[in-house]
Design a protein that fits this description.
Largest sheet: 7 strands, mixed
Number of strands: 7
Mean pLDDT: 87
Strand content: 25-35%
CATH topology: Aminopeptidase
Distance between the termini: 75 Å
Helix content: 25-40%
Structural class: alpha+beta
Low-confidence stretches: none
Number of helices: 5
């Protein structure tokens, strides 16, 4: 089984809609059940500048997606926010890991993002482990973050900082001291 990661195209809207029709996938996101095909078509056709949607395919079938969305505010332009879903039939088969690796590589090497952020429900232990495996850490807990199946559930705020960031102030080499001028 080979997982291929590629950019989402407008024609992929039905396949992406299919991911979010799966009960476990929908329960792990902020989407509501019964997604509209038209809404997904519009989202894929009108992707925002700086945003990327990647798909995981196996034998040509779309089995997962991840979106990287950048922050428009100038002082947070170094931040990307990710959201991911894997079709229920393809859980625990490396799809999420492949999507996450591709998104991290894109963020680190091409989008000049220092920080990636995400939210994940606290009871989604498999996803929390996956994110930690890829360098994310829990920054805090949002209480009653979202309504899911009639109950308010908590979510973790997680983030990952680029491990070897270019041009970061806290990683500057020590300043050279000026030589003392003997006559002062």
């Amino acid at each position: 089984m080979s997982i291929v990661i590629r950019h989402a195209e407008p024609g992929d809207f039905e396949a992406v809609q299919g991911i979010f029709e799966a009960p476990e996938a929908i329960a792990g996101t902020l989407q509501v059940p019964f997604p509209s095909a038209e809404a997904w078509r519009k989202l894929l056709a009108e992707q925002q500048p700086g945003g990327k949607i990647l798909l995981a395919t196996i034998d040509g079938r779309v089995v997962g997606q991840i979106g990287i969305h950048t922050v428009a505010r100038p002082r947070r332009s170094h931040v990307g926010y990710i959201g991911m879903a894997v079709h229920d039939e393809w859980h625990h088969q490396g799809v999420g890991s492949a999507l996450l690796q591709a998104a991290i590589s894109l963020a680190d090497n091409w989008l000049h993002l220092l920080r990636l952020e995400l939210t994940v429900y606290t009871d989604n232990e498999v996803a929390v482990r996956l994110y930690k495996k890829h360098g994310f850490f829990i920054e805090g807990t949002h209480r009653a973050y979202a309504l899911r199946d009639g109950k308010y559930v908590d979510a973790y705020a997680m983030a990952r900082i680029h491990p070897n960031p270019p041009n970061i102030a806290s990683h500057r080499p020590a300043r050279k001291r000026r030589a003392a001028s003997g006559g002062r």
